[in-house]
Amino acid sequence: MRAILRFGLRTLCAPAYIRRRFFALVFAPVKSSHRAAVPRYEDARWSATNGEVPLPLHIANQVAVANSLLAALPQREYRHLLEDLEKVALTYGEVLYEPGDQIKYVYFPNDSLVSLLTLVDQHQALEVGLVGREGMVGIPLTLEIATSPVRALVQGTGTAMRIKAAPFLRELRQSHALQRELHRYTYSLMTQITQTAACNRFHVVEARLARWLLMTQDRMRSGSFRLTQDFLAQMLGVRRVGVTKAARMLQQNKLIGYSRGNIRILDRDGLEAACCSCYEIVKDMHDAAHPRQSHRHSPAAAPPAGPPSRDHKKDARNGITVSGPSVAGTH
Question: Which of 67, 108, 219, 255 could form a disulfide with 250 if both were Cys (CB 3.0 to 4.6 A apart)?
Fold first, then answer.
């Protein structure tokens, strides 16, 4: 302590330049090895040189868009469209259109699911299309046809972005980006409808049910749904006993869990092996038309390592023929 005091007194009597050096060393702030958690905008150059990427200023202005079709639009055009969009709740069993109804609104599902049904003899219905977050309900309006040819039935409760027909048509005529995305989606929907027609004619109920469950999971991003056997029979165009038999077989092979209308996918890889080739065809066609959206259709569960082999063999686990002609109505 005495040595420190003697050194201090000598320093006070030293020349001015020595005193300045002494006080600079003693009272200099201690440099921390940790940088502030949130660097200022001026620190962006420092962050980049130290391995940290500064947050772009425009990120705070970006809008999270759940619907893939809307998300593909340039930000400026989406914001312009947003002025006429409203978020609505869609409830299971709700009918958006009946065949022949005027299309007053179009819907862009967020986390809801809508079935497109064609009616036979005014009372029997068969599903021909399925629309989720990848698309839009009300496609005829893109061709400036204001009448629905199908029944649009809400299959999965959730939300959607809705816009009236008049402002939608106005935006469609002005936005080349919106036209491009809707043309691509129309192609994808046409592929799904035509492939579904062939699937309903030639593939067994078990394979068709597996395909339908995979398509539902892709669009809802959930492995659990609430679906009654009566509803499934209507979707697949078969009798209720056929759905019961198909669901029991998938359940026995531990691909799904099914109890009181609640379905849970247990083995997605096994379900892909059990379904018909139509699922892969429709998915590949969609991915080809929408390369930027292909990653959006992976389910909430971990994606499979690769597509299963479809070489007209039987799945070793469940003995279901995954391809080959079969009259669906006989099962």
Answer: 255
